[in-house]
Amino acid sequence: MGPLGHSLSALSAVVGAPLLAGGLLLRPHWRVGIDERLGRREEGPRGAAWVHGASVGEIRAATRLIDAITRRGVPVAATTTTTTGRDLLRRIRPEVPSALAPFDHPWCVERALEAVAPRALVLVETELWPVLISAAHRRDVPVAVVSARISERSFPRYRRVAPLLQNTIRRLACIGARGERDAERFVALGVAPHRVEVTGDLKLEPPVDAARVAPDLEAILGEVPLLVAGSTHEGEEAAALSALAAAEAAGIPLALVIAPRHPARGEAAAQVCEQAGRLVRRRSNAGFSTLAPGEVLLLDTLGELAGLYARCEVAFVGGTLSPVGGHNVLEPLQQGRPVVFGPHVENAAESAKLALTTGAGFQVEDVAGLRERVLELLQNPQKTRARADAAREKLEAHRGATERTLALLDQALGVFGEDAREDAAPNP
């Protein structure tokens, strides 16, 4: 970084410091991992591939790519934007050094890059951080974006700021797009066509094995049929409770599992259920007594939602009735279970379209539609299960995104090939 860059960095730090200090004072949860956001890293292998994903969904999508890179003899270091994503990664891949991503400020970024000394930077989906990408480029670290997406809703915003993104975009060595439409949007923003390849959506990669429920959780669930409401936002817990009440009125025994998208909303979600007269059991302290029909299990832990999708009768994926833009509506289908979701799927449009074509994905317009569809699926269990099994088979056609992504990285970056096996040196 030259003198001008240092001067601008210092100026931005002076201007931003009071704002950051105020935020840390008013929002104590911002203090969690603040040293990591400032660029500090624990000792780990230098020369690692740095893989970054925003949160839980992106990290889950990247896990098999991380495993594939590791099998090539290349160490991996990972970052996430959220603490929930980082904590999940530390739980499911404890051997991978992981931290919160640094603030996109030159001093924080340079500190992290100096500690990791990565051989490549791999960004999952749309994590286009200008300072990080610029600093990596300056160090001759190739940068790739994989499972890359630009949603229909966000594309006009990117078009408006396209001139400001040009320096960032031209520093990308390659982009592995989810689909043709995403590839076209990146090219429209100025990415050279030869740098864009459709490799598929890592989130569509079918799991190798069916997700399983931990033995203690299985003991809690017993034999009660489940409606699972995953990744819920404000207002969607009440919608799920409405579906539960409809099943009860029809004489169908059912318990409800609610997994808020953001764990911090757990207490608010519990209050909604309790105000509706429901007994709420928290996964974190539910003990071993069996969940009964009509009760609610609040999933306030990480990494267990997929197993509960595999265990349920019907799943509802949130962020779709509330105007959030949707989450991964395919995860229940990949576990062989039908899924219901609302109209707001702008951030998961391709996945929602695919879910509908499988015959076991159902889009509803409102709470009443959710209630009616869930009841219909519960009243026809054999037909519902047959549809879900057929849907899982259709999703098998999307297997291979990880291999195609790794092949692109091999070709474009040249640092993950079969001969990339030199030992990583420890940090001094």
User: CATH topology of the largest domain, anyone?
Assistant: Rossmann fold
The named CATH superfamily of the largest domain: 3-Deoxy-D-manno-octulosonic-acid transferase, N-terminal domain
| Beta fraction | 5-15%
CATH architecture grouping of the largest domain: 3-Layer(aba) Sandwich
Query: What is the straight-line distance between the termini?
Result: 23 Å
Number of strands: 14
Overall radius of gyration? 23 Å
Q: Structural class, judged by helices and strands?
A: alpha/beta
Number of domains: 2
Task: Output mean pLDDT.
Answer: 88
CATH structural class of the largest domain:
Alpha Beta
Principal-axes shape call: globular
Helicity range: 40-55%
Main pleated sheet: 7 strands, parallel
Q: Looking across the biggest beta sheet, what order are the strands in?
A: 3-2-1-4-5-6-7
* Count of separate DSSP helical elements: 18
Q: Unreliable stretches, pLDDT < 50, 5 or more residues?
A: 1-17, 19-24, 419-428
Description:
The chain has a 7-stranded parallel beta sheet with strand order 3-2-1-4-5-6-7, sandwiched between helices. Strands 10-11-9-8-12-13-14 form a 7-stranded parallel beta sheet, sandwiched between helices. It is built from 18 helices and 14 strands. Mean pLDDT is 88; it is low at 1-17, 19-24 and 419-428. β4 (120-124), α6 and β5 (143-148) form a beta-alpha-beta unit. The longest helix has 24 residues, at 3-26. It has 428 residues and is α/β, with parallel strands linked by helices. The relative contact order is 0.12. The protein has 2 domains: 32-205 and 400-413, 3-Deoxy-D-manno-octulosonic-acid transferase, N-terminal domain (Rossmann fold), CATH 3.40.50; 215-397, 3-Layer(aba) Sandwich (Rossmann fold).
